[in-house]
């Protein structure tokens, strides 16, 4: 081991606390990059593998009823590669052990599993259905697991007004339902909604759909135009109750997983950039201090014949060694975190096989990022070391030129104690160093604020969606639109305290060259069981004329209040209408359009129809009502608001707790590294000064106050700045993570700021305690012998 290596190793051991702090910050940044990069790639790879193996369709179409021979017409459309027709129906279920009614989506499958089909099934356990046994079904894995069911169990369903016993023979998954959610809902309720695959002949018989279908899936040939195929499908099925063909980008399950991958991609750049920026700062100040205190050693090294390159590489080693350790530790930690996050995604999304892929590319990029950060942080200090001529380096560094400052005025000197004046004067004479320290500590505060921001956003989402907007207990969706006279029969049931109905019409909206397939919801009132409430919890009134669009939908169409929107009804008489945009509402979930139900009836040109009912029920009569719902014909699905909220809370609890714990831990590391390094460097720079004050009569407490009070003051100034930076980062996250499916409201609770304040103060106190131990242990005589 040559001389420079021995020197480097000895001094790294001497500075082990500061070097470990730098390595920890680098490890945090690299672990986030490696974990998020591998998770993003794993989700993308698992999704593409799943879609390819089980032939997920490219286009989808739902109709009321179409003849089976139209399937051949579709296959002849230029660009269509394969077509699959199905029968799909939503039914009410009576689940053993579940008091409330559940909803099942029945999907037809071939009795013989010979030829490959689109949206094929992965059988997790059990078996495929057998020919000639119409009662056999395959049920979705989330539903079975949530209800404690397994192949061999039975379940009752009301199909076309008749109760039928179904035998579960298999547990399955489909690429069509990676995110399994009930139609009309955004949050999964695994206990009360499940997908069931049943033989085609059994569903044809039960629903009187012999020789017909109501659902179509198809794949496109390479290079085919999705837009052209959709136009031809819409034209072909316009008289069969088509709701309009759509691609994967509008398929709910795929949209959720695509948005999730997009959010992971945003996190790849966000957090690592913060940690590596702090690493650059720490390396810079540490190396500059080392060079400043080793001027005479640099001169000796050069006088002994070491070249500028050798000296430069020696001091660059102070940056590279902790960076290498940080990169290695960060990579290992990133792999561990990535595997843990994939386990959470496996609970959230229903993949046949969610495989964790760790790529060599991620290691290479993480190493390059960490080395780049080390080089940027060290280059200034290394350059100053190389440029020092031996003769100049033998002389002490020129002292700073001091001049009276604001604090040196006589009236202030009398009012401010000496230790406090020393602190303030040091900050006043080194403003840039103090400002950088404040900025770095504030970044730790900002990460804590941004990390817990999602908690506040979700709390606001729950408040708005489950308390203010929806105030019903039960939503009953009818199989077919019902006339008002028939629908009001629900109100006569014992236990129904309040009822409210709505109409929903599928339309094609057009403004200029922009077209959007959308549904319009006609409400009786905006002050009833469903209210119009924006993401800031402000209520919006429902106009008697005109239409209200969510802000995101209005932006997509390029319309504003007062514009005339073209409306084409997709069902019924398929009328073309014009309607004025009466206003917009910035909702949290989805894209919506609202009208008064009388206005929607007028535009549709009929006597009125109802699609669903909101009910507020007497809890003491709930069990009897649920029993009635289970037997009632004409009901397609039932949603329980309380159950949805409980499912949502359970769903996000694990992921939110995990992400907050990770961010809190990393922010603590960041805060400790900045505060500890700042205090250690101040101690090394001012050891002689503090020892002199001790000899002159100051107590250990007073010199500790001089050193640590400066760090406390920097932390004090960093807290409000960190709050502001955290709000800005949260705003960026809100914009980056929002999509057509949901928009995160920018809200903050007092607890968020108190949490960040408490964590940073505790971490600062711990680092201060560690530095004070070194301060108290200083050898006064040895320090005073040290050359300035």
From TrEMBL:
All residue ranges annotated as the ABC3 transporter permease C-terminal domain in the record: 270-390, 662-777
Classification via Pfam families: FtsX
TM helices/strands, residue ranges: 20-39, 270-291, 312-337, 363-386, 434-455, 661-679, 713-737, 749-771
Subcellular location: Cell membrane
Domain of life: Bacteria
Entry's Gene Ontology cellular component terms: plasma membrane protein complex
Record family assignment: Belongs to the ABC-4 integral membrane protein family. LolC/E subfamily.
Protein name as catalogued: ABC transporter permease
